[in-house]
UniProtKB/TrEMBL annotation:
Lineage: Eukaryota, Fungi, Dikarya, Ascomycota, Pezizomycotina
Record-linked PROSITE patterns: GH64 (PS52006)
Spans annotated as Disordered: 379-411
Pro residues bias: start-end ranges: 386-402
Ranges for domain GH64: 1-370
Transmembrane segments: none
Name this polypeptide is given: GH64 domain-containing protein
Pfam families membership: Glyco_hydro_64
InterPro entries, per the entry: Glyco_hydro_64 (IPR032477), Glyco_hydro_64_fam (IPR037398), Glyco_hydro_64_N_2 (IPR042517), Osmotin/thaumatin-like_sf (IPR037176)
Domain of life: Eukaryota
Length: 421
């Protein structure tokens, strides 16, 4: 069975950091997989008879003192996550299936809610290793990734600096002082210490009145603009460029594709109402680009989406996804998934998503706690045109015992995976 080494580096300043590796074992009929505490032994749970059954094996991998590296070995995995917890352990449960009940950042009754934890995502199959850091749900522990291939070339995403969470939380509070929209409510603290900053979408899960009409004025401006101006969307797929105008209150594209005005919740989640996945490949490609343009607030200044975009134009409107803006401004090289369609970019444009991938991986280095994993300047990375992104679903965070519904997914179609549960 094929295996690959991951080097897990602790730079948190704490000597008590644990890692967990979860996913589906591709070479074992996609069985639910967790890595044992030794970092080498596979654990395949059996289906329990009741919900919220504890794991029968210890899967907390100690990383050792700050500054040390723990090397773990994994098989081919789909829908993988590498979880980190500082100054405490995470609690995972099993539901019948077996399905894994993962920690939730938006359920205050979850056993892990007040633990300082975070994760990165990966899929390793016979085609490639794909890894990304994700701010779609929240930011907490800084995580950086560096992927070295068999030719010795390394690509990396630097992630947040060591003080990144403090910087993000302070910036959210400062933004709220400007507009009073509720950005400070995205800061989650325990005993006066920040443990995470959640995305607007998860903020709405925690408080359903938050941001209730935040985007309304901007959406109205967009609809007014395209009542007399043509919007062009490059699907970056077989449909090529498609055009639309607003009539009778609806944004109408050729081929019978149309959009009602999206709500603030639609824009932040990228997955409800006007922006729900339709199953129509062309519409879903348009949706990805519209959702990205709304989160970045570029529709009033650019009628050609996403081509014609430049990063300096993102988040310049007073009404925008300030969480995404702040996350990108805080990461060392500006890259990270700050909303589900953050991998949308112009053809040949600068990639915003915090991902690395290679068909010939040799070693993945994951650093938790801040600090560069590589000197490679990844801020100039560009991506060619490709199939439309598959959304990275933010956690719906239903109450325990049901598992939080982070499905995951990435720009290239073959990166899509299903979460257990």
């Amino acid at each position: 069975m094929a295996t690959l080494n991951f080097a897990l580096v602790n730079t948190t300043g704490s000597n008590t950091v644990y890692a967990y590796v979860t996913g589906r074992a591709i070479d074992n009929n996609n069985a639910l997989f967790l890595l044992g505490a030794d970092g080498k032994t596979a654990y395949y749970p059996t289906s329990p008879s009741a919900t919220l059954t504890g794991l029968s094996q210890d899967c907390a991998i100690p990383l050792g003192a700050s500054g040390s590296t723990k090397t773990v070995t994994i098989p081919h995995i789909a829908g993988g996550r590498i979880w980190f917890a500082r100054d405490g352990k995470l609690t995972f449960y099993l539901n019948p299936g077996p399905n894994l009940v993962e920690p939730s950042a938006s359920n205050p009754s979850d056993a892990n809610y007040n633990v300082y934890w975070d994760f990165c995502e990966f899929t390793w199959n016979s085609s490639q290793l794909y890894v990304n850091i994700s701010d779609v749900d929240f930011v907490s522990l800084p995580i950086a990734i560096a992927l070295t291939n068999t030719s010795g070339t390394t690509s990396s995403v630097q992630g947040l600096p060591s003080n990144g969470l403090t910087t993000v939380c302070n910036a959210l509070k400062a933004q709220n002082a400007k507009d009073g929209a509720g950005w400070d409510q995205l800061v989650i603290a325990k005993n006066g210490t920040n443990i995470r900053a959640v995305s607007p979408n998860l903020g709405i899960v925690l408080n359903n009145s938050l941001f209730s009409s935040y985007y309304t004025a901007y959406v109205n401006q967009v609809w007014s603009k395209y009542a007399s101006t043509t919007l062009t969307v490059n699907t970056q797929a077989a449909a090529g460029n498609v055009t639309a105008t607003v009539s009778n209150g609806t944004l109408n594209f050729s081929g019978g594709i149309s959009y009602a005005k999206p709500s603030t919740g639609d824009i932040f989640s990228n997955s409800s109402g006007a922006f729900a996945v339709s199953g129509n490949a062309t519409k879903d490609a348009i949706t990805a680009r519209l959702a990205a343009a709304f989160n970045r607030s570029t529709l009033l200044i650019n009628t050609n989406q996403p081509n014609g975009e430049v990063v300096s134009n993102y988040y310049q409107n007073a009404i925008t996804n300030h969480y995404a803006r702040i996350c990108h401004a805080t990461t060392i090289n500006g890259r990270g998934y700050a909303f589900p369609y953050d991998d949308v970019s112009p053809n040949g444009g600068v990639d915003q998503s915090g991902s690395v991938y290679d068909a010939n991986p040799k070693l993945l280095t994951v650093t938790v706690g801040g600090g560069s994993t590589s000197t490679v300047a990844e801020d100039v990375v560009s991506r060619p045109s490709a199939a439309p992104p598959v959304p990275k679903r933010p956690s719906a965070a239903p109450p325990v015992p049901k598992k939080p519904g982070h499905l995951g997914g990435l720009k290239k179609v073959w990166h899509k995976f299903s979460r257990s549960g």
